[in-house]
Amino acid sequence: MLSHASLPHAGGRMGRGGILPLCEVVAMIWLDVLVQGILLGGLYALFAAGLSLVFGIMRLVNLAHGDLIVFAAFLILVTVNLLGLNPFLSALIAAPVMFALGWALQRFVLNRVVGKDILPPLLITFGLSVALQNGMLEVFSADSQRIRAGALESASINLGVVTIGTLPLLTFGSAVLAIFILNRIFYTTAIGRAFRATSDDPVTASLMGINPRGVFAMATGLAMVIVTLAALYLGMRANFDPSIGPARLIYAFEAVIIGGLGSLWGTLAGGAIIGIAQTVGAQINPEWQILAGHLAFLAVLIIRPRGLFPRAVD
Amino acid sequence: MHKVTTRTRASTVAGLAAVALVVLGLVLPAFASRSLIQDLFFILTMLTLAQLWNLIAGYGGMVSVGQQAFVGIGAYAMFAGVILWGWDPVPAILLGGVAAFLLAIPMAFFAFRLQGAYFAIGTWVIAEVTRLLVAQWKTLGGGTGTSLPREATSDIIGVAAIAELFGIRDAAARDILAYWLALALAVGTMAAIYALLRSRTGLALAAVRDNDNAARSVGVDAQRVKWLVFLSAATMTGLVGALIYVQTARISPDAAFSVTNWTAYVIFIAVIGGIGRLEGPILGVLVFWGLQTAFADYGSWYLLALGLLAIVTMLFAPRGLWGLIADRWGIALFPIQRRLILEGARNG
Amino acid sequence: MTPILETRGLTAAYGQFKALFGIDLAVSPGECVAIIGANGAGKTTLMRSITGVLRNDPGMVLHRGEPIGDLPADQVMQRGIAMVPEGRKLFPSLSVEENLLIGGQVRRGGGRWSLDTIYQLFPILKDRRHSPGTALSGGQQQMVAIGRALMSNPELLLCDEVSLGLAPVVIRDIYAALPAIREAGAAVVIVEQDIARALSVADRVYCLMEGRVTLHAPAAEISREAIHAAYFGEPT
Ligand SMILES: Nc1ncnc2c1ncn2[C@@H]1O[C@H](COP(=O)(O)OP(=O)(O)O)[C@@H](O)[C@H]1O
Ligand SMILES: [Mg+2]
Hints:
The structure holds three protein chains of three kinds. Chain B is mainly alpha-helical. Chain B has helices at 9-27, 34-59, 68-83, 89-111, 116-134, 150-154, 159-166, 170-198, 200-210, 212-217, 222-248, 253-256, 259-273, 279-294, 301-316, 320-329; strands spanning 2-5, 146-147, 250-251, 339-342. Chain B has a two-stranded antiparallel sheet. In chain B, strands 2-3 form a two-stranded antiparallel ribbon. In chain C, strands 6-7-8-3-9-10 form a six-stranded mixed beta sheet, sandwiched between helices. By secondary structure, chain C is α/β, with parallel strands linked by helices. Classes of the chains: A mainly alpha, B mainly alpha, C alpha/beta. Chains in contact: A-B, A-C. Bound molecules: adenosine-5'-diphosphate and magnesium ion. Residues 43-44, 86, 161 of chain C line the site of magnesium ion. Adenosine-5'-diphosphate is lined by residues 14, 17, 19, 37, 39-45 of chain C.
């Protein structure tokens, strides 16, 4: 599983340093749980960032988002196997393919149904989700797969108090970097301005010479690039198979809603909250990992239905 | 002179045909093969689920992706009744309805605070939470699930009588009993929805779907209508879930709470047939069953086809196959639009 | 000389409801044309049809003689027809300066208007340039909306009721910018309900009633009676 059991580290240190007071051991265990949770949250933030972008710009929920992540993971896997490339390079090849796919999906399918009524896009992406899952099942079989990353898989960094896996750290760093870059694009570039204007009011945006359909297609394409990044880490960190998409979609959506519509840093915070809730849950009882994440989400929604850092008004 | 009517000639014919069909359905086991009865059981239960989803989403505008919660909790409640309290499986189906009703209350309380896409995902998350909690229920098999004990399935009320009546074995008689119950649920559900849509509440529901605020401003208590519809649909869905698992006799959280089986396919059935009309799911379930039968030998390709078909329908015939038919020939088997008929000027 | 803009038998409808019944109108380069008419006469619908927000048969709208009636709004704008929409419609997520910049995203080169010259035209905007557009007063928002449309250096500027809801002094300030706009070479179409104001700035006037042109004349030659008749539909 994705959570890292923390007892061995604490135990090991106790062996070296002699007998530590019990409360210190307990504190260290929970510190470890917290750190692992935040790092796990990085993966969820990567799942969520693309969704957040698209949802923020066109209020469109892509129910196939999770399956597209799995699809990208298979794409990377195939590239690794066929060309014998390193996973990171393979992702670099997969990214433009995914961009084109997202662009075309938006341009030729979803643009026809974006609008006030949420039912059509929801149903279309639901159809895509089931089609993708079963298509992948036929092509790649139900077997679990993994993108091999060599020594990186088991590498870790010992920080004394806690031991951090290199891969989880890299995931978190990538999430922060991706969100930073997305934010720069969103707030300092012409295309970002067009994103925001179109999100505010597509008709008036078109009076400014902007083609809203083109903007939407760009946004979905960009989201698919982040999906590729998410897929890279998903595939290297854990086994995946064609059926796991919907669960990733739920984590992603929870992170988006917790963070608040339209706030990318909020999405990172949302991912971290789900990650922490899951590792804390798993620490208490391994079977409660996923449940704890969902309960944290429901709790936030009850307290703040619009999320923690809402930016846009919907 | 004028009067307001919802009746059309097609609907009168359809009404008579429906009665005939129900009678035929009742006596069918006398001469139908066992596999046909099993297929019809599948068709009728999926049809009922699709009608119920159609009621809350198509008519009520509440796009739930969490209907599997009610199927699952209904099935598990039935299992609990049989395994823990020694009930007969058939009356235990009622427990399924009760459990789904009880689950629907907190779910509605929570989900009604959410709008649109949030509502959809919110209901899905609650279904997931229910699944994960049920998986902790060790006496009912935890995460791996369990089966109905042989003693319980061997002497279900009425099975012996059916076996004797048709001169068949118990297993086949069980199928017939389940089929009759499914028929009763399907007919009852559709009759109830039809009656609801023709009532004042049905009008209110349409107003709520089209515009919450406007509905409120003309004095429709939107919230009350939504609660009514959501809770009744949940209860019925729980009954159907329990019935399906009486027939299956084996349960696991992953299967009973499957979003794909109990919500995705159900939604596709409604979409392909036609959202927001009673005829839609009937047509949709036949397409679904046809695809499944025709492509049974080709693995899950038919599910891929189903997904793509739903997309194509949504893009090019958003009112579904029945919408195409109705536009083309102006037929309505279950008319709910009120039409004004002026005496004297009545010519068609 | 070919007009910059011409409509020929332009019709428009919202679903079953017909809003325009065959509008013929022409605007020459550098000209200022006013369109007046009561509420609901179809003025905004006319603007939407010209700018491509509502699509028509190609030949119903001509730009320099070329049919553009079926072009989407973004392509119409790229041909040099910019609009100040009714109700200003600033983008709430964008600052004042970003609102201006987005208007200039498709700039036609060689024109007079840039951020600097817009700030010269409306100096107050420079001080508020980092505020969200919607945090400004109504008059200032209108200045942003006009500046935003000018940023593309259009050859035709359409202004839909720029004085709507503004105090008389503010309206005067806004109209004070008109000579500079015309001097820079743009033809201007002004939709106004304030007839006196329209007559004082326009070269020619069209009056709309219930989707039809009921009066069309040079501004200098129009009598009060003719306007009253065209506006309200009955001779007095
Ligand atoms: N979006 C719309 N949908 C339906 N009818 C509209 C819409 N916009 C305007 N109308 C109708 O079209 C007619 C013309 O409106 P409009 O062009 O806005 O008039 P004006 O700008 O002259 O006040 C009016 O009767 C109005 O009610
Ligand atoms: Mg107007």
